[in-house]
Amino acid sequence: MIVFLQSLMSGVLIGGVYALIGIGLTIIFGVMRVINFAHGDILMIGMYLTYFLFSVFGIDPFLSVAICIPVMFAFGALTQKFFINRMLGALPQNQILLTIGLGLIMSNTIMLLFTSDYKILTTSYSSGSVDLAGISVSQPLAISFFITAAITAALYWFLMKTDIGQAIRATAQDREAAQLMGINVRWTSILAFGIGSALAGTAGALISPTYYIFPQVGSAFTLKAFVITVLGGMGSIVGATLGGIIIGVTESMSAVYISSGWKEVVVYVLFLLVLLFKPSGLMGTSRM
Amino acid sequence: MRNKVLLLLFTLVVALSSLALAAPVKIGFINSITGPEAPIGENLTNGVTMAVEDLKKKGIDVQLMKEDDTGKPQISMSAMEKLAQDGVAGVVGPYTSACANAVAQQAMKYKVPQLVPAAAKEDITRQGFTWVYRLNAPAHNYAQALMDAAFNLGQPKSIAFIYESTDFGTSVSAAGKDYAAKKGLKIVADEAYQKGSPDYRSTLAKIKAQNPDLVFMVSYVADAILLMRQSREMGLAPQAFLGGGAGFDTAQFESEKDISNAVFSVTQWTPDMGTPGAPEFYERYNKQFGKKPTYHAACAYQAMMIMGETAAKAGGDREKVSQILDTGTWTGIMGEVKFEDYEGFTNQNKHMMPVIQYQNGKAETVFCPGKVCKVKPIYPFPGWK
Fold it and tell me: What's the rounded mean pLDDT across residues A254-271?
């Protein structure tokens, strides 16, 4: 029973961070219908930013989220303005090639700057844990889970209650209609890509105290983000949150009850089953 | 007296003429220079660089042909093809087990002597490949050396295995499982994992529930730190943590004082293992590259020295290189090297591995092959602070 609760707990905690990665991808897709294959690389840049701030200025990885969000927002917004925007009407395969190319440029630039060595952030709480009725709760994961929850809640409020948020949702629902209603869709797209990048970067910052950092780390997360968003339903924030947690728990449970070597298989079988019975994903109406 | 002078003159003439005749020998070196294995690959490159310098001092001019395999077997194979066509006398490398094994087939096909410096997969020298030589100890020795150390110190009864599902991870732990069964250890967990996963907590929780006396882990670079961090989180505390080389044998792991303390690991080489020239090699490397040499560096150095000397002696002829490698004996920083056929292995050096233990952020050699070490091991594991 302890083992069950333990793996449920770590699954949920890690799933929270997965959710954050998925939400970023889903917002970008929702607004622009562009599948961002550079998402993992943007996350990787967030990791290196955190690493840089920690090793040079001694800023705690969790505090650096406050710096990471605006910097990565600006990075994403500029990327959108100068590169992605030009391709909005183009064929989907061209958009995919563009984002893959951008991702390669990002990871290779980082490799030039920081070499391909693995970097590990060591903080006082890196291997700390709290005992909760026999279940040990990883300190860094718990903190990052709370930050994730707070950010998701704030984002939800922003999209539901503010005018700009409504504009983003309107663009996601119907780009042309939104434009006819007087919404500046170009600007909305820049905003959406900025938010998506900021979320990926934040996820990178949150993972870095418990994971290791290297220039090619992004590809694994791009794939994961893709699975999460498709599972939850492309364009749905609630779906991405759900998808992230489902993937986290599935990985963790299958590692215990099947085998650690099979956990990826279980995740993809689940993914296929969901697509088979509900092709648009769990929350799939492609609306936010 | 007259005879002696004549003899001296004669040797001088021979030496001079051989020096004058010595055209550079072409030697191939396949390594992971970029890609995920690059941080370790760099050590091999440095070791080879030092060997080429030392060979030059001995009057052997090596024309080194470096090839980057990026850690991918298919690329290492085309590198070997290219080197074979370029007329190298022999090849040192590649680093990873998967690449070294792929290249071994090519070595047979093109009849090029291949000297594997640091890849542990058993099969590499177990397929009867007469052109393939290996300097380092194969995978089963990792597990054997570690378990023997544990039996030496206590009476462990059960063991849990957790290892990455790569060639290296599975072959080291498969050998470990065989040896454990032979020694009457009960295997309570057998967990292969996909490398690069951020979360091993559930696997470790499962292992903890089994309460094993020994926990045996095999992983490359950074996963080792992750595994130990999460073991600490989970409060997993067996009698001993046994780390099967690679990721458990890096400066980075050593520096993580909180999680590395009292962890055993096995390695191919340490400066304190009592082999001739080892401390000097350590000093020189440290000065030249500004960091400590890993065993990969020492293996690559020794492998290149052997290949360089042999190739020069054979005048670059592949057939002759292979003959000299078959019969020769070398003594250096890796101890005595001799390529032998035994227990199904061909051209395998019977290398004895030292066991190390991390004590307060420092790797200490606690079991030296055939000698008594200065530092005493800590056993059992003192628990987490």
Answer: 87
Q: Residues B137, B345: contact at Cβ < 8 Å?
A: no
Instruction: Give the model confidence (pLDDT) of A124-183 as tens digits.
Output: 888 888 888 888 888 888 999 999 999 999 999 999 999 999 999 999 888 889 999 999
What is the nearest CA distance from B13 to chain A, expressed in angstroms? 50
Contacts of residue B230 in chain A, CB cutoff 8 Å? 127, 138
- Give the ipTM: 0.81
Residue type for position B194:
Q
Q: Which amino acid makes up residue A154? A: A
Q: Domain range for residue B107?
A: 22-137+275-349
What is the DSSP track for A203-251?
HHHHHTTTSEE-GGGHHHHHHHHHHHHHHH-TT-HHHHHHHHHHHHHHH
In a domain, B320, yes or no: yes
One domain, residues B220 and B362: yes
Alpha carbons A205 and A203: distance in angstroms, whole number: 5
Cβ contacts (< 8 Å) between B203 and chain A: which residues?
A: 255-256, 260
**One-letter identity of residue A243:** G
List, in sequence order, every residue forming a beta bridge with A120; answer none if it has no partner: A212
Both B359 and B256 in one domain: the answer is yes
**Contact B380/A at CB under 8 A:** no
